[in-house]
Amino acid sequence: MIAHDSHVPLYIQIKDYIRLNIQAGVFPENSRIPSERQLAEQFQVSRLTVSKAINELIQEGLLHSHVGKGTFVSSTKIEQELRTLTSFTEEMIRRGQRPSSRVLYAAVEPASSEVTKALLLPSGTKIIVLRRVRLADNQPVALETSAIVAAICPGIVDKHDFSQESLYQVLREECGIRIAYARQTFESRQATPEEQEALHLDPHTPILGITRVTYNAQEQPIEYVRSAYRGDRYKFNAILRYGE
Amino acid sequence: MIAHDSHVPLYIQIKDYIRLNIQAGVFPENSRIPSERQLAEQFQVSRLTVSKAINELIQEGLLHSHVGKGTFVSSTKIEQELRTLTSFTEEMIRRGQRPSSRVLYAAVEPASSEVTKALLLPSGTKIIVLRRVRLADNQPVALETSAIVAAICPGIVDKHDFSQESLYQVLREECGIRIAYARQTFESRQATPEEQEALHLDPHTPILGITRVTYNAQEQPIEYVRSAYRGDRYKFNAILRYGE
DNA sequence: GGTATAGAGTGGTATAGTCCAATTTTGCGT
DNA sequence: ACGCAAAATTGGACTATACCACTCTATACC
After folding, report:
1. ipTM of the complex
2. Does the beta carbon of A140 lie under 8 angstroms from any beta carbon of chain B?
3. Among A161-165, B93-97, B181-185, which is the least confidently predicted range?
């Protein structure tokens, strides 16, 4: 399986091995692959060599990992299909940067008129408001405020630490909510004083402002988000379809 | 410089150090940066830690290396500045504004490396370059440069007046080319001097920069566009699908 | 029955060293 | 001066080991 005397580097051979097993269905989507220590023992190589192979596959989007849990096969459609909308966390991992967050505010409160309008809610509906500074490699990249109807996902504010976890992942795994599509607007503007402070910006720094309403497959609005991305640190990628 | 007792991983600090030195011009473009062993000695870390930092920067495209020669700062010019967008004409009509254009440049010429890379073309391929100021109700809104393979739509530069006609409409009706989807990047930045002049802007005006590669249904790249939209006059709307 | 807590397992980070192949530099013999 | 071989340097690959923070689970305790 793995040839130590080959001219092909071991970590490349291990990458190929894992990739083939994913393609062959031996490692199904979302399943855990053997631990780095197990693979190192199996192939009689050092753990670092296995780790290098796995990290390159993470970089390529085939795998993702969590300390203490293991390494998992990603849903491969993300890269292969024409797929577009990713959470900040997933997008940063795909780019090879480490995402993290600083939670500025997290609470349940009645929806503002801006939110009721965007999500088509009756006024007074309780929503979860989550306001975070998003960081990539520990550098602040964006200020983001999310609003989700509290009833569809009760109690997640207290149960989860969103400085580490992905909101979309929690919605998916904890509440069974799958986001199907989103309407977004993009604009370029100057930073507000609040954004300047939160993101450590100079005045005149250009901001990529994004508002987003996400919907499930039943076309019910799920979440409303306003984000301010640092223009000098972030480019937004999207695949857009014509017509329909 | 490098704090061993910080909570920030050493290799991240080293990445930041190198990145900052590149930005500050200490490590100019195409220059050699210190060897891995020198940096390891300088920061009192193991060579592997420096190597990890450098390899991630190589991954990100900031550096490139050759065994026996060293590690060099890549030239970033290729990925810098200018962009484009959807059918401006159709979008403006949808918004109830009157679209028009001022053609700054229209010619057939060999593709630049930026274009060949984006459209996956052999170098030297002839392309149509179309550079226009886009206006809404006679107010300049964007500066847009399009590149299309000349062979797929011969002679349209001479036959059509793109100050009035929509490029996409001509492609569709004259050449039978239907655009299926596009990959776009969005960014927020300050206007370049050229854009300031073309769009009558003050310095510091935020620009919504968009690059786009459009594809037909057969997934062949058709067109590469770079646009600069006035941040104060334009918001971009999109519907994005979430995969999986 | 519920709740701490201890332990095992996980990936992340880091060290110190080895060998290798590609490349540049150096120095020696002519 | 010149050519060429040896030496030094460089990044690439790899091993063995260590400690950390996190996650999960099983056990002990109340």
Report:
1. 0.49
2. no
3. B93-97
Give the per-residue pLDDT at A220. Answer: 81
- One-letter identity of residue A201: L
User: Quick one: three-class SS letters along chain B?
Assistant: CCCCCCCCCHHHHHHHHHHHHHHCCCCCCCCEECCHHHHHHHHCCCHHHHHHHHHHHHHCCCEEEECCCEEEECCCHHHCCCECCCCHHHHHHHCCCCEEEEEEEEEEEECCHHHHHHHCCCCCCEEEEEEEEEEECCEEEEEEEEEEEHHHCCCHHHHCCCCCCCHHHHHHHHHCCCCCEEEEEEEEEECCHHHHHHHCCCCCCEEEEEEEEEECCCCCEEEEEEEEEECCCCCEEEEEECCC
- Please state, as a whole number, how many other Cβ atoms lie within 10 Å of the Cβ of residue A16: 13
Smallest Cβ distance to A83: which of B8, B188, B243? B243
Which DSSP symbol is given to A45? S
List the single protein residue with the shortest CA to C1' distance from D13. A9
Cα angle at B8 between B7 and B12, to 5 degrees? Answer: 160
Q: Is the pTM of this model over 0.80?
A: no
Q: Which two tokens stand for residue B239?
A: 């519907």
Using CB atoms, pick whichever of B59, B204, B209 lies closest to residue A59.
Answer: B59
The answer, yes or no, to whether residue B214 has pLDDT greater than 80, is yes
Cβ contacts of A235 on chain B, cutoff 8 Å: 185-187
Ordered domains of chain A (ranges, CATH):
10-80 (1.10.10.10), 88-230 (3.40.1410.10)
> Across residues A66-81, what is the average pLDDT?
65
Q: Where are the beta strands (DSSP E) in B154-205?
A: 181-190
Contacts of B12 in chain A (CB under 8 A): 98, 137-138
